[in-house]
Amino acid sequence: MSQIPSGPYPKGLTHSTSDPIRSIETFYVRPRWLFVRVETEKGIVGWGEATLEGHTEAVEGAFVELRERFVGWDSANIEDIWQTAYRARFYRGGPVLMSAISGLDIALWDIKGKTLGVPIWQLLGGKVRNRCKVYSWIGGDKPSDVLAEAQARKDEGFTAVKMNAVESLDWLDSPRALEGTIERVKQVKSIGLDVGLDFHGRVHRPLAKQLAKALEPYNPLFIEEPLLPGQQEEIKSLYGMTSVPIALGERLFTRQDVRPYFEAGCIDIVQPDVAHAGGISEVRRIASMAETYDIALAPHCPLGPIAFAACLQLGFTTPNFVICEMSWKMHYNTEAGGGHDLLTYISNPSVFSVHDGSVALLEGNGLGIEVDEARVREEDAKFREGSVEAWRNPVWRGPDGGIREWL
Ligand SMILES: [Mg+2]
C-alpha cells in the first residue's frame, strides 16, 4: 500500500520520465479572451483558453489556487490533475471553476502532444474525418440587414452561418417581433446557406413555441437555447411541438449538468464550450455520453484561437461531431476595437482556412497552432496597466425599464 503523502499539496503521481509543471500564467487579450500558458521544467510550453466572457477576474482568481496546487506536478498526468482540480475540493462545477480547469486541461493536452510529437487527435484515438465543418456568425446582437454579411461569409468559403433569432423580447411580446426573424432566415437561405438560429435564452415560453412553429417551414439547421438552461421540462414540451433540431449546452459545464437534458430527451445537439466545460477531457466525455443518446456534438466556440483549435482537435476524433462554431469576424470581435480577431494571436493562421464550409485536419503537434507569445504579452500588459478594460456583458432593459435577457 502506498504511503499517503504529507503536506497540503502533495505533488501528485510521478514516474521516471516526469516533466513537472514549472509555471502557470494567464493573459487577458482583446476582444475578451483569457489565455493560459503552462511551461514544464523541460521547457515545453502548452497553451489553453479559459475565457469566461465578462468574468476574467473571477477566473484569474480561481487560477491562484490551481497554480499553488499544481506547480511541481507531472504535466503528463492530465487525468489525475483534472480529477484533483475537480474533486479534491468541497465546491465543484460552475462556470468559474470549470473555465479555469478548462484552460489548464487544454494546455496540458497541448504539452502532451508537443512532448510526444503528435497532434492531440492522435492521442484521443486517431482521426475519424479529414475535415471539420464550421459555421460563422452574422448579424450581430441586433440583427438587421444580414444578407450582405451572409454573402460575404459564403464568398469566404462558409456553407453555414448562425444568427440571433431576435433582439430583446419581453416575456410576452407582439407576435410582430417574430416576423423579422422569418424574413432574415428566408434571405440567408436564398443564397444557399444553412442557418442556425440562436434564441440566446432571450425568448420566453409564450413566444418560443410560436417562433419554433413559424420557423419550421424554412428548415433551419437548428434552434439554439430555445429557453433558458434549467428548464429541461419546458424545453421538452417545446421539443414535441417542432421538427427543427434543438441545440443547447453552452451554459452547462460538466457531465452532471448535461445528463438531465439527455435523459429528458429534449435536445438533438449538445453544444459544450471547451473553454467552460472542463476542457478537452470533459467535452470528450460529454460527447461519448451524447453518442449513447444519438445526440450530436457541435462545440460552442464564440471565443479565441486556442479554444477553436481545441474544438477542432475534438472534432477530428469524435464520431458524433457535426459542426463547430468559429468566431471569425464575430460582432464581439469587431465591436471591441483594436482590430483583434480569431487570427490575431497566431503565427500560422492558414491552418484555420475555410474551404467548402470546413477546416482541414490540423497536422501540427499538440493543438496545431503557433501562439504569437510576444503579441499576447504585449496585449496583456495593456490590461494590467489599465489602458485596456475587461469586456463586460451588456445590460438590456425594455421600454418600461424592466430588465431583459441578453444572454
Ligand atoms: Mg448561443
UniProtKB/TrEMBL annotation:
Cofactor dependency: Mg(2+)
GO biological process, one term: amino acid catabolic process
Repeat is among the record's keywords: no
The entry's keywords: Lyase, Magnesium, Metal-binding
Recorded superkingdom: Eukaryota
Domain Mandelate racemase/muconate lactonizing enzyme C-terminal: 143-245
GO molecular-function terms, A-Z: galactonate dehydratase activity; metal ion binding
SUPFAM superfamilies linked: Enolase C-terminal domain-like, Enolase N-terminal domain-like
Protein name: Enolase C-terminal domain-like protein
Organism: Mycena venus
